[in-house]
Amino acid sequence: MTLTKATITETISEKNNLSPAEARKTIEDLLEIIKSTLISGENIMISGIGKFQVHEKSSRKGRNPATGKTMILGKRKVVTFKCSRELKNRINGNKA
Questions:
Q1: Burial of 32 (0-12, 13-18, 19+ CB in 10 A)
Q2: Cα distance between residue 17 and residue 26, in whole Å
């Protein structure tokens, strides 16, 4: 099952006695902070969850799979996520 913004909003609304509109606004604000931080090139560390990092990839030679023609893929930025040790242990059923 995929966790959606709607599901998160509903859960926060129920757990915190907030209206769905207040919960939705909170989630939208949080996601906007995350997006703007990543767009600015900064990393995000969420304690107990992990770290989102912006990496710049160099241009490289690639191939169009439809035509087989060689092409140059330009520089680009990608976001990676590294899980915290605590979360990794919990996912794997380990204590601590």
A1: exposed
A2: 13
Please give the model's pTM, rounded to 2 decimal places.
0.76
Domain count, the chain: 2
* Distance set, CA 36 to CA 25, 42, 85 (Å): 16, 9, 26
- pLDDT digits over 30-46, tens only? 999 999 999 999 999 99
Q: Do 57 and 14 share a domain, yes or no? A: no
- Report the alpha-carbon angle 29-36-10, nearest 5: 25
**Looking at residue 75, which CATH number applies to its domain?**
4.10.520.10
User: For the CA atoms of 90, 24, 78, 89, what is the dihedral angle to 10 degrees?
Assistant: 0
